[in-house]
Amino acid sequence: MSMHRGIDAPDIVFTGCSVTNANAAPFTPAPGAKRREVVVKGRRVKTVDVHAHCLMPEAAKLANQNVTEVHRPGMILGDERMRQMDHMGIDVEALSINPFWYRTERDVAAEIVRMQNEKLADFCGRHPDRFVAFASVALQYPDLAVQQLEHAVKKLGLRGAAVGASVAGEEFANPKFHPFWAKCEELDVLVFLHPQSTPELAGRFKGNGWLSNVIGNPLDTTIALAHLIFEGTLDRFPGLKICAAHGGGYLGSYAPRMDHGCRITPSECNPAIKLKKKPTEYMRDLYFDSLVFTSEALRHLAAEVGSSQIVIGTDHPIPWNPNPVDHIMGTESLSDEEKIAILGGTAAKLLKIQ
User: Fold this and answer.
1) CA 311 to CA 338: how far, in whole Å?
2) For the domain that residue 219 is a member of, what is the CATH number?
């Protein structure tokens, strides 16, 4: 695609944590602003953002999604997007598309995924120093998702898979998804898990405060990760690499409670599932983005899961934190080496970025 297509006919546009919600004020770097270079201990650090959204209008239309609101300046994949990255000090973004196709028919889902993965690969190929991408997959058809992921990684050069927190109400721990997790493990790719607001609670989220996002999204992630732990999925696929958005939801703050549930009420736990370690210990096998807003929250997340498991996540283009680099650099509890890893070192290894 051309970087300079007009706003009326974009191939790819950027959106935030849902397909159609793009009403937040965009990043507005000053005209002519220079690219911010991040330096730690006198060393230039390549920064890598694992949590950056985009959307392809023509693909969304196949699922009857309304994308009118995202057709506006600054949301098109091109020069303005890279100026925003320069302003934030982000060198590379790993693009992902939140799944809106989990309830579509097989042929529609297949076409949506084909279109998205090919266009993502094309764009990243045009700007290999600034973008990599996660593949879309039609997880409601696990056999198809396996084929799509293998093609995307081996033929298109995509770096992993972007998934929701469940599939049309079905938990990822369901054995029907085991072939997909096995393929992810075999290909040694990162899975980026992004929530979809815990739709079962939509009625309670109504009212003031955008609760469907500020509460619903972290909760959705928390439930997904807890099932993967307690149902033994992570034991079955020990090489699986999962990165959870928004700091992993609420697990980073309250995970130790999981260690006591089966002891207190063993009748609520399946005796046939014998975990190989305490539930909290699986947290150190997962990865988490840094979108937790305060230095204290980041310090605590690092204490719970290990700084080696944290990577930058901005949720770009939604401006939750216009200064994601400062969020890392300003957390005094982190050593310089830990900051270098979080800023990009860990993500570069996971995403195979040179």
Assistant:
1) 10
2) 3.20.20.140
